[in-house]
Design brief:
single chain, mainly beta, five-stranded antiparallel β-sheet, two-stranded antiparallel ribbon, 0% helix
Length: 91
């Protein structure tokens, strides 16, 4: 389940938080669709809650990343987008 999408506190990455709510092992996918204005995903990293990079996440398909989730796990990934991605400011 998607928890949040935001800009990284430092840098221009797009931070996506996902969680598993059913109490089972599962997978979650994040995809950037054509025409979204977000640009191409250049790289993906799993991070901790403070957005410190932990490990690279491979992309098996262009503009799509999948992560494995343990029961009730919260996962944060940082997407580095070509061209910095869209403006998602709330101000």
């Amino acid at each position: 389940m998607l928890s949040s999408v935001k800009r990284a506190d430092q840098g221009g990455d797009l931070v996506v938080r996902l969680f598993e709510a059913a109490g089972a092992h599962g997978r979650a996918a994040v995809a950037i669709g054509p025409g979204s204005g977000a640009g191409e995903i250049e790289s993906v990293a799993r991070t901790d809650l403070l957005e410190r990079r932990l490990a690279a996440v491979p992309m098996e398909l262009p503009n799509r990343v999948e992560v494995a989730l343990r029961p009730f796990e919260l996962v944060t990934v940082a997407l580095q987008l070509a061209g910095g991605g869209p403006d998602i400011s709330t101000g």
